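Long-time lurker, first post.

We've been arguing in lab meeting about whether MTE would sit comfortably in this protein at all. Half the group thinks yes, half thinks no, and nobody has a model to point at. So I'm putting the question to the forum: if I give you the sequence and the SMILES, can you give me back a predicted structure of the complex? Inputs are below. Any interpretation is welcome too.
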Amino acid sequence: MAVISRGFHGRRPTEEKLPPGQYVVHDFPVLSAGPTPVVRTEDWEFTLTTVAGDMHHWSWRDLTALPAERPTVDIHCVTKWSKFRTEWEGVSLDTLLDGIDLDGDYAMVQSYGGYTTDLPLEDLLDGRAWIAYRYDHEDLPAEHGGPARLLVPHLYFWKSAKWVNGIRLMDSDEPGFWEGLGYHEYGDPWREQRYQGD
Ligand SMILES: Nc1nc2c(c(=O)[nH]1)N[C@H]1C(S)=C(S)[C@@H](COP(=O)(O)O)O[C@H]1N2
Ligand SMILES: [Mo]
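Top reply:
Settle the argument with this. Predicted structure of the protein with MTE, as tokens:
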């Protein structure tokens, strides 16, 4: 009788899922450039600003009324830790932005507390980015970005802005917080784009 463990069958070996230069962690490190802002859900607001200057707002009630998804994804921090199969719940940016006239090719993601990060608008679409408000079946803890954070797991984790509160669309790329301090403007872990020039 063939002995094939279901749990193993179909999964890629660990090395294939680990981008170059990364190692695996089993805890969940907290990396914050400043203090953790206290944001109550009743005060939470998310604003999309288009290049044309149109503004679209979502309250917490608006956000959580939208259909949610439960992505399980690997995350990769530029400081070299990766964490496999993290479980989130939140709203896909495709769902959030559905029906809105999007202009501009780039997005500046903005957070409570002033953190920013830039990326091409298309990287927020096609099932690749979420506004996540639950982690590991619990409300997202404040230190990990609660009440809600961006989740863009195909880029280094600094692009996944914690305490997210808006996106400003732009015609051309501008550096966000870490990008202005020398981090790569795109940040693909598989191409090891850690710093400018990588
Ligand atoms: N608002 C905000 N978002 C942020 C950061 C930050 O300092 N402020 N740090 C980034 C970095 S460098 C990483 S690796 C991840 C860390 O998320 P975690 O603390 O939940 O592990 O958040 C990213 N998002
Ligand atoms: Mo990071």
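For your lab meeting: The pocket of MTE (ligand 1) is lined by residues 28-33, 77, 111, 113, 115, 144-145, 157-158, 160-163 (CB under 6 Å). Helices lie at 14-17, 60-65, 93-96. Whichever side wins, do check it experimentally.
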